[in-house]
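Hey, can you fold this?
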Amino acid sequence: MIVTVAVDERCIGEDGCLWLYPLPEWEKLEQTISKLPTLNKMAGKLRRFVIGNASECEMDGQGRLLLPDKLRKFAHMDKKCVLVGQLNKFEIWNDDAWAAKEKQWLDGDDNEGLEELGSLSF
């Protein structure tokens, strides 16, 4: 498993969240990022932030993921975390940050990109 910090399209960390990738998915992401133009400033930020902060993590004998201190501090992870499935990866959230984000979504305060989902049906 590879764990890295989460970033949005502006290359800013999602507060209280880490991304957890199975190795095959991480390798696909690395390939995608490696093809970005080297002189593009945003691509450089993305490489530094995502690839530069990635860490291979292992599980202990009790099945707990051992997160590096640097990443735990970045996401303000103490004791309680929430694991959220995201198709090809997982998000690991600080419990308080997840609750705040979930409330924001439920309250409808975050509608960015809503138009792009207009054709989606379940």
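Oh, and this one too while you're at it.
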Amino acid sequence: MSSRSVDRARLDPRLTERLGELTDLGHTGHVLAWDQQVMMPAAGGPARGEALATISRLHHDRLVAPELGALLDEAAVAEPLVARAIRRDHDVARRVPGELTAQMSRAGSDGYAAWLQAREANDFAVFEPALRRNIELVRRYSECFPEAEHPYDPLLDRYEPGTTAAQVTALFQRLREGLVPLMSQIAMQPARQAFTGDFPVAAQREIGLEIVQSMGFDPEAWRLDDAVHPFAASPARCDIRVTSRFDDHSLTGLFALMHEVGHGLYEHGVDPALERTTLDSGVSLGVHESQSRLWENLVGRSPEFWTHWLPRMRDRFPLTLRDVDLDGFIRAINIVRPTLIRVEADEVSYALHVILRYELELALVEGTLDTADLPAAWAAKMKQFLGVDVPDDLSGVLQDIHWSEGVLGYFPTYAIGNVLAAQLWRAAHADIPELAAEISRGELGALRVWLREKIHRHGRLLSPPELIEQAVGGPLDPAPMLEHLRTKYGALYGL
């Protein structure tokens, strides 16, 4: 199924007005949430939580209104894809009481504040009551969908529409079967060291901006800020906000920046005809993650990319990089080793971090794991999956922001994104034979245009399976990702 550009003139003006209001409320919520993480003083948390709860309730009330349902019935003939996508939002929202939606929003804001305090104290106990409240609320949300095969399914559906826990479990089993032997082979090779030396944050930010401007970052429509946990927010197609977290002794912030700009390019590349229809955003977080991981890893950790950018990096960091050649640099930025922190994990081990969180989420939602026991369960799985010991809460259970905001069902989308990124990378090379040569010259426009045509412009008009089928000619498939990793790291490690 393909999607043409939407003809807004075919829609009832009453429908476009209502969709515009929904979009505006979403825009407001995005800005308030971004501000909370980037600019707001800590003491503003309680008031911000109330404001976000009000916005959430108003959005819910307008989305479930019977008048919207009647207008969507009329639109089913004029613009069937528009009507179908918004009808799904309408039907799902009608199942959930507005007050529960507001409570979840308020609890998420309160939970974020508690998470920051817990991180400061390096003490999970400070955060545990807020997490317990969030778990209680997402269980109540799941109860609104009694037909679901598993209570996790409605939570997952919020971020990856139509996907079930059973499907994720099967996908993750295939990933583990492919990744664990590869990890074991690499572990038998001599250990490699990452860069040592200084990468001053100011210089990283300068070259980072040069890199992402070549990707499509436009200072007229984008901004870059710092955050405790890097993220991207897109209140509107021409209001893209990305954050990163730079460190003077690591390049992880540079790759995080490329990652978040990959998210921003998706939102920025949506067909302008979809603006203020509520469909002008990514169709799922798995598809969204495919964009960020493609830019961060498949482009950003490739020798072709650094053929162009390494000389410019040497200009910024001459003392650290003057004796590092291209091969040495590529080996250094592609080291495979178990780590405590998910966002700093290599391509091979990353999915194991995601699977760990998925299994813990399942247990929390099912009630087979109590929130008070989460740090111990986390530590046990880190030892089982990655063979590392967790020294404290900050580098363990408190590292991710998601649970603080009541976001459960999100983590699987990270691994789904990695899988789809490899499929898209293969398809892009098939469609653009000169892609590798272009990247080595610092030319990223052809890839950006290809992704815009295959993924970005469609917004939420197509379902995730429809979009994936159209883009890569088949369903979600982990085989290209596993083949990519075996080939790449087999060569890097001489396997």
